[in-house]
Amino acid sequence: MSLSPQDAQKKAAAEAALDFLQPGSVVGVGTGSTVNFFIDALAQRKHQFEGAVSSSQASTERLQAHGIEVFDLNNVAELPVYVDGADEINEHLQMVKGGGGALTREKIIAAVADKFVCVVDESKWVGRLGTFPVPVEVIPMARSYVARQIVKLGGDPEWRQGVVTDNGNWILDVHHFDILNAAELERQLNQITGVVTNGLFANRNADVAIVATANGTETRKRK
Ligand SMILES: O=C(CO)[C@H](O)[C@H](O)COP(=O)(O)O
Q1: For the segment 136-171, what is each residue's pLDDT rounded down to a tens digit?
Q2: Which of 7, 54, 94, 183 could pair covalently with 59 via S-S, beta carbons 3.0-4.6 A apart?
Q3: pLDDT tens profile 70-103
Q4: Residue 45 is part of a domain; what is its CATH number?
Q5: Which one of 106, 137, 158, 218 is the catalytic residue?
Q6: Where does substrate bind (predicted)?
Q7: Whether residue 193 sits in one domain with residue 141
């Protein structure tokens, strides 16, 4: 079956990330359709590394279906590389993530990893973050309170109804944020009681972006 042009770019970016793997180590694995291509590519190299830590139940199942061992992050002392996608990424390699709802575990693994390699098709590369709504994971009983606080910050929250995260929580997708300082907004959102975390990855941004275009893949560093 032939891939759409966007899926072909996702696959190209994901496969290029294999060059960043450290032989013999554990690799951090994100979540989403781009990462699914990475997991499938990883399966061809599974004897070259020890195993993976995973940011979601969905990725864990896909890794295990390929016979790749998935470790508990608590039992992993070193994580040289984390590979994940993004919903938006800018020239500072700050991202909006969490379209797939796995933002909290993704942020935890990103914090542990030495190097965050972000794999995207060119549609994700933006001049300014915020067109894609910013996901915020909330403790269920705090949903309305958190939503009211988000309105005070200038956002327009929408409950992602019917979605429960792997951590048993809910998600608010926040539209229309005017994001001038992503790192500051990330901190402000995280200070609201009841917020588990939010999908701005500005304080822990990516170290490298692999951006697939119609003309091939480019590796971009932070500006
Ligand atoms: O943050 C994520 C999941 O929580 C994904 O990385 C993001 O949504 C991009 O997904 P895709 O590769 O399917 O476009």
Answers
A1: 999 999 999 999 999 999 999 999 999 999 999 999
A2: 54
A3: 999 999 999 999 999 999 999 999 999 999 999 9
A4: 3.40.50.1360
A5: 106
A6: 31-34, 84-87, 97-100, 124
A7: yes
